[in-house]
Design a protein that fits this description.
383 residues; 3-stranded antiparallel β-sheet; 17 strands; 50% helix
């Protein structure tokens, strides 16, 4: 029963909450990365659960996140028209904060707070602090300098050269940690039960407990050194993780995830897809992202002025994503290729979700009223 409970607790440590606006990239043995979206079955409108690989070699899980604001030279809109998740966007307050009127920008845990009002939720405190710092830097600039700074900021989230360096640094600095966590897994779930079965609890528990403590302490010390390398300012989270790892073996086994999950959150998921995924996976994901930024959808009820700001922000993203895809060999016209007509009654389609309609004119209500694109009269159907 004790080991059954331990296994269940370890399974809980393998569960990761992923907010909408984020995409996970997961591998087991360092190859064949898969794109993991927050699901609807084990989640809600704000996010969903995903799972890290539980068995040795324990695998790696990174998270890429879209920028959770629409930035204009005039201010910050707490809403983004495009989405990186097929199931939709997270909930945002939709308020516009003019730079000239903002008095305070700070991170509070996983939240970004502007003038005491919640502007965005993030996956980690380090990401929230990074976003708050970027907004403070933009606020200090003059109006005519902000547009170029915004374009540079968007380009940084698609910088795969910097991403590759972070990935290589992670492999180098966490190799000892990953070795220790795999040894700890084997000792906890194989060596310990075998020793108790062979010699009994009375004769083995001092040695087993001492061995586990040495392993968890070693893991905690190596983790603290690696965490300080990547997140030198995050002293409070580092101390909390250190104590948990030292005292809780099932958490120690997943200690590498405590570094990997927030490490690449500053990058857009499209950049992670280019670095980690196969060419066909990257092209498929790029097709979805391009349609999102090229044909942004606004939710009903948003203020018309803010909706226009959101579309302006989407135009900046469209330019950045188009430039990124062209640089990496994908043809925009192929990614935006119109779908085949389902049948002769299909007269138009939505350029964003590709749903087909039996009228030539109209809008797609599900995509916020986007105008439909008619098929050519002579275009054959797929049937």
């Amino acid at each position: 029963m004790l080991f059954l409970v331990t296994a269940l607790l370890y399974g809980f440590e393998c569960i990761c909450w992923l907010r909408r606006g984020s995409v996970a990239f997961r591998t087991w043995i360092g190859r064949n990365w898969e794109i993991v979206q927050p699901g609807a079955l084990l989640g809600n409108q704000n996010g969903g659960f995903t799972f890290a690989h539980p068995l040795p070699p324990l695998g790696t899980l990174f998270v890429g996140t879209q920028f959770p604001f629409t930035l204009t030279p005039e201010g910050v809109l707490a809403f983004v028209a495009s989405s990186v998740n097929p199931l939709g966007r997270p909930e945002w307050c939709g308020r516009f904060f003019p730079f000239e009127q903002i008095r305070d920008i700070k991170a509070s845990g996983r939240k970004v707070v502007i003038d005491r009002e919640l502007a965005a939720r993030t996956n980690s405190p380090t990401h929230a602090e990074h976003l708050a710092q970027k907004l403070r830097e933009l606020k200090e600039l003059k109006l005519d300098a902000r547009e170029q700074a915004i374009k540079k900021l968007l380009a940084e989230t698609l910088n795969i050269e910097a991403l590759k360096k972070d990935w290589e640094k992670f492999q180098e600095r966490t190799s000892s940690l990953q070795l220790l966590t795999n040894i700890l897994f084997v000792c906890l779930f194989f060596t310990t039960p075998w020793a108790i079965h062979r010699a009994g609890v009375v004769h083995t528990w001092p040695f087993l407990l001492g061995g586990l403590f040495v392993l968890t302490l070693s893991t905690a010390l190596v983790f603290r050194r690696a965490h300080k390398t990547f997140f030198p300012q995050a002293s409070d989270p580092r101390f909390a993780h250190f104590m948990m790892i030292m005292l809780w073996p099932v958490a120690a086994i997943r200690s590498a995830d405590m570094i990997s999950r927030p490490l690449l959150e500053l990058y857009h998921p499209l950049a992670l897809a280019k670095v980690f995924c196969r060419d066909e996976q990257f092209a498929q994901f790029a097709r979805f992202i391009l349609r999102e930024v090229r044909f942004p959808a606004g939710p009903p009820g948003i203020d018309p002025a803010n909706l226009e700001r959101a579309r302006q922000g989407a135009e900046l993203w469209n330019a950045a994503v188009t430039k990124f895809l062209n640089r990496h060999g994908l043809k925009i016209e192929e990614l935006l290729e119109r779908p085949a007509r389902a049948d002769a009654e299909s007269l138009s389609y939505c350029p964003r979700c590709l749903a087909q309609f039996t009228t030539r004119d109209g809008v797609c209500v599900d995509c916020g009223g986007l105008p439909l694109v008619p098929f050519a009269p002579e275009e054959p159907s797929s049937k």
